[in-house]
Amino acid sequence: MIRLNLNGTVREVEAEPDTPLLWVIREQAGLTGTKYGCGIAQCGACTVHIDGTAVRSCSMPVSSVTADQKIVTIEGLSKDRSHPVQKAWAELDVPQCGFCQSGMIMASAALLAQNPHPSEAEIRSEITNICRCGTYNRVLAGIKLAADGGQAG
């Protein structure tokens, strides 16, 4: 059994130590908002926060996370989708197909927690998630809107 602090709740899950954290989150914990995209930590669809840092969970063995580390998935980012990034995403209709968006939102929320007012260059440098629909301009606008406190203009 492996103990994880997942969205504020300590849970025990049964998994092999080398099982990727993504699969433990999706299969054992039943939280399917975190997506599988590539399996090699390139696309970012699997992004979660560990102690506030955005990490790609598809290539991270569950054994590398300790019970005292706080894992937050898209389901735990806010109870009612009231996080500024989620609100900006909805206001600007950022996603197209939406598959990559939970990872994009998690990466963007981590960036804004570390740097509340990033420049465009910083956003472009830090948000390396892949969107097959190409909504990068809307993602950029959403991050800027969230950084500005939700004031479109």
Automatic annotation (TrEMBL):
Enzyme Commission code: 1.3.99.16
Signal peptide: none
Domain of life: Bacteria
Molecular-function annotations in GO: isoquinoline 1-oxidoreductase activity
TM stretches of this protein: none
Keywords for this protein: 2Fe-2S, Iron, Iron-sulfur, Metal-binding, Oxidoreductase
Domain 2Fe-2S ferredoxin-type: 1-77
Name of the top EC class for this enzyme: oxidoreductase
Keyword Metal-binding: yes
Name this polypeptide is given: Isoquinoline 1-oxidoreductase alpha subunit
Organism listed in the record: Methylobacterium goesingense
Taxonomy of the source species: Bacteria, Pseudomonadati, Pseudomonadota, Alphaproteobacteria, Hyphomicrobiales
